[in-house]
Amino acid sequence: GEGRRLWGQTTPSELPNKWNMSVRKPLGVVGVITPWNFPLAIPTWKIMPALIAGNTVVFKPASYTSRMAVRLVEIFQEAGLPDGVINLVMGSGETVGNAILRHPDVALISFTGSTDTGTHVSVEGARLGKRVSLELGGKNAIIVMDDADIDLAVDGILWSAFGTSGQRCTAASRVIAHRAIQQELVEKLAARAGGMRLGYGLEETTDIGPVVSASQLERVHSYVAIGQDEGAELVVGGKIARDGELARGHFHEPTIFNNVKPTMRIAQEEIFGPVTAVIPVDGLDEAIEVANGVKYGLSAAIYTRDVNKAFRAMQDIFTGILYVNAGTIGAEIHLPFGGTKATGNGHREAGQAALDVFTEWQSIYVDYSGRLQRAQIDT
Fold this sequence. Notes:
Layout: E1 9-12, E2 18-26, E3 29-33, H1 41-52, E4 56-60, H2 66-78, E5 86-88, H3 93-102, E6 106-112, H4 115-128, E7 131-135, E8 140-144, H5 150-162, E9 172-178, H6 179-194, H7 214-230, E10 233-236, E11 255-258, E12 275-281, H8 284-292, E13 296-297, E14 299-303, H9 307-316, E15 321-324, E16 340-341, H10 353-357, E17 359-367
Parallel strand pairs: 3-4, 3-6, 4-5, 6-7, 8-9, 8-14, 9-12, 11-12, 14-15
Antiparallel strand pairs: 1-2, 2-17, 10-11, 13-16
Helix pairs in contact: 5-6
């Protein structure tokens, strides 16, 4: 549908017998570099708008999920996409990613991944005069006010913090709780999290699957020690699961810290695993300040029954996505997806906003007066 409405603009001219309009044009070759955590969703929401706009694509998936990338490209071939329109190249970021980034024929790099790698892409892109679209890290917060539906908030927090084993850029790794309901909230969270079942992700009885690799498991677990060393209270979890069949995979218990200070590392750094930190506050102003007090700005949420507090949050929380009475995950594809500050460089994916990334504007003037007409400044 978007391919049939790559809209531009028409405007009245300042001169008689002259027509003005703007159109979108493809950039040419687009480099798409994607992460492992959404091995179909993220490639498609980059590749689809790139193709709709008339570009060709060089696609480098994450090494952990290369088989999914092969199948995706096969589906495009089965659908009749001409050869050479999508070009799948697999390998490391150091080798393949840099080759795509530095190739003179690649006009745009669309990258989703870590902030450190994104910084490298941005610097190299600037040096080479390339367009760069970045989707990077997050440290997303759920605010729970004293008038919130606590049970609803618990449902949203557990799903946002521990769904997909916390391996989403929108995962809720901070819970900003009003002190009046903090104890009740933490007790309910701990009771539910402590009963979650770890296991094979395709079994319906499984609540939390594995993290992606042994190295990521150790990285997630290292933050448990960091939080304890900083003085945070470990409420539940905190261990690598090594019992029985779980020892064959990379499983980490759902972990909740309480009475976390906003400046602690576990409240500032992206963990990308099933770990969340409860930060107590005294009111909405402090909650908003804490929510904004990280370098990232992807997603945030607030649970409240007060419409005034909800609209204050909409106004003052500086993130690309904001939920009211829902968790921090679950963005819909027809609205722009992306974040502020260190989460990205201002571009958006999905929705019509994606077309701005993968197209170039051209302004066109048609003079049918049959004579030389000078612009107003020249007369």
